[in-house]
Amino acid sequence: MTSPPAPDSLLHLSLQIESLLVARNPRGMQTLQRALKPGYYARAVELIERAFAAHDRPCILVGTGFPVAGTFETDGPVGAIALWQTLQTLGAEAWLVCGEPLASALQTNYPVCRLSCGDRHDAEQEAAALLQQHPPQLVISIEQPGLARDGRYYNMRGIDISAGVAPFDPVMRQATCPTIAIGDGGNEIGMGLIEQAVSALAITPATTGCDELLLADVSNWAAHGLIALLGWQRQQDLLAAVDPLAILHYLSQRGSVDGVTHRNELTEDGLDAAVGLQLISDLRQLCHPDG
Fold first, then answer.
1. Is 268 a member of any domain?
2. Into how many domains does the chain fold?
3. Is 4 within a domain?
4. Comparing C-alpha atoms, which of 51, 148, 153, 32 is closest to residue 92?
């Protein structure tokens, strides 16, 4: 019989984080969690550490951006920026990869690789060019539409949004390095890893997979969970430097909307920013109980 993980182990903490991040379960992520081998946050941390072990300044691509109401939603970019800030602080060469209008919103303050919207043939060529220009040691996708079986992209309501999507699937498929994907519904890149399980939910499943899939009730929260666990591994409170409210303000000033309400407000998937702030506090307490 397999022994339980030690209370002070990376795996033990990962399991706690995995449960915490799907505790609300508004869209059935607890169902999808059962389809994954436990410890997926720990394995994602190990992929990040492997990239840093192999290169003094690893190149890490962080793709994000889900089109909503002619603009971009807050869920995804908040976590992507938090990841970018953390990876840069640790010494990586990190890039945010996205399409319009998010690319223009971010490019003044962050290094952005821009992808075109709509044309899947061009997307394959763009992905190849991007991977040649910035050969990555790790690729991360957070809250991005994933290609469905019929070759189209759909939102949570089953509406075809293909024309507004800047496809990141080709980057994930063509990359020869490890890939991490984050999602909270079933139609995001990475969910192809557990497509059969997603089929049980009321959503059009994405088919694009990944090496490690991270689930959360809100995708931004998965980024925070990953940062928290990486900080525990490095004995640094990395989440202390993350300010999601400031990032939400930044995005709101540039036209973001909530993915559920479609309103320009400081919320994530219909939840007040205070909910996310409390989650960060809980994650920090979990990973650094002594402060």
1. yes
2. 1
3. no
4. 51
In a domain, 15, yes or no: yes
Residues of the domain holding 87? 10-287
0.85 surpassed by pTM:
yes
Identify the CATH number of the domain in which residue 158 sits: 3.90.1640.20
Tell me the average confidence (pLDDT) per consecutive run of 10 residues in the chain, 291 residues long.
Answer: 65 98 96 98 98 97 97 98 98 98 98 89 92 99 98 95 96 98 98 97 97 99 99 97 97 97 96 97 95 72
Q: Please name the amino acid found at residue 157.
A: R
Within a domain: 266: yes
* Helices and strands of the chain, counted as H and E runs: 11, 10
